[in-house]
Design a protein that fits this description.
Blueprint (H helix, E strand, L loop, with lengths): L1 H35 L3 H14 L4 H13 L4 H14 L4 H13 L3 H14 L4 H13 L3 H14 L4 H13 L3 H14 L4 H13 L3 H14 L5 H21 L3 H13 L6 H7 L1 H13 L1
Length: 294
């Protein structure tokens, strides 16, 4: 009889633990579903229920932190969640990276770099830590440091178009235009649909006064991604046409001046309008009629 009650007691404990585990996983599952549907408040509610059931389980803190960070923009609470997760699992590099990304969003660059460096000390081949630290160094204008981190990331991920694009941006900031163009071209060769790489290469060519090359790249960027930052990219294209027109103006090639000024106006570069009116009155009327008509 005694052994029967002992067995029944153990069985009840097992059922209680098993039921708790099922409930925990159920809340996590519902949280993930809500998160994927971008119902962030609901996702946070389910993750919080999971935490209440098992406050020592790191997963729910991570997931709630991600929900706070990426969609709810509740960065302070995200950092609190990641910090709690770190206290439960201090040797997990992924959580340090997640907290570092959140700190970068808050412009707390030095503290973010400490987190990324900690992740690297735990896993020296964690490419996400290197690219995240590189992005943060770029944001704080440590372009040489950023290039070093992006180079390690590229060594670990030699087929990453994004890695070459990011390193090219840092080289551009240092005035290393040829090296930057090489990186952007490599990024494009790895991903022919990388509109950012085309756009960035166009900016670098513009700085080198290769206006034809810049125009071609800006056009390609717009063609690949017409709905992203349309105004900014059209203005860049317009700016390149305007600068090319000015180049021809210095050598007196009026037809090419007017042709390029007209291209600038059509791409929304409003600065050109008064020069178009002054230097190319026929084209000015044509462009103005089109703008007024639209």
């Amino acid at each position: 009889i005694f052994s029967y009650f002992l067995f029944e007691s153990d069985l009840n404990k097992f059922i209680a633990v098993f039921t708790k585990e099922i409930k925990y996983k159920f809340h996590i599952m519902r949280g993930d579903t809500a998160f994927n549907d971008k119902k962030i408040k609901n996702a946070k509610k389910f993750y919080s229920k999971a935490i209440k059931l098992d406050p020592s389980n790191v997963l729910a803190y991570q997931k709630r932190g991600i929900a706070n960070n990426y969609y709810a923009n509740d960065h302070k609470n995200a950092i609190d969640d990641f910090s709690k997760a770190i206290s439960l699992q201090p040797n997990n590099p992924k959580i340090y990276i997640q907290r570092g990304i959140t700190k970068t969003k808050r412009n707390d660059y030095d503290s973010a770099i400490i987190d990324f460096s900690k992740a690297i000390s735990l896993d020296s081949k964690n490419s996400n830590a290197f690219i995240s630290r590189g992005i943060t160094k770029h944001k704080k204008n440590d372009f040489n440091g950023a290039i070093r981190d992006f180079s390690i990331f590229i060594k670990l991920n030699p087929r990453s178009s994004n890695g070459f694009n990011l390193r090219g941006k840092s080289k551009h900031q240092l005035g290393q235009y040829e090296k930057a163009i090489n990186d952007f071209s490599k990024a494009i060769s790895l991903d022919l649909k990388n509109s950012n790489a085309f756009n960035n290469r166009g900016l670098t060519k513009y700085e080198k006064k290769d206006f034809y090359g810049a125009i071609d790249d800006f056009k390609k960027a717009n063609e690949l991604d017409p709905y992203r930052s349309v105004l900014d990219r059209r203005n860049l294209l317009g700016m390149a046409y305007y600068s090319l027109g000015n180049k021809y103006k210095t050598i007196g090639e009026k037809n090419k001046v007017c042709q390029n000024y007209q291209g600038a106006a059509k791409n929304g570069y409003s600065v050109v309008m008064k020069y178009l009116k002054e230097y190319c009155p026929v084209e000015y009327k044509r462009v103005k009629y089109k703008i007024d008509f639209e």
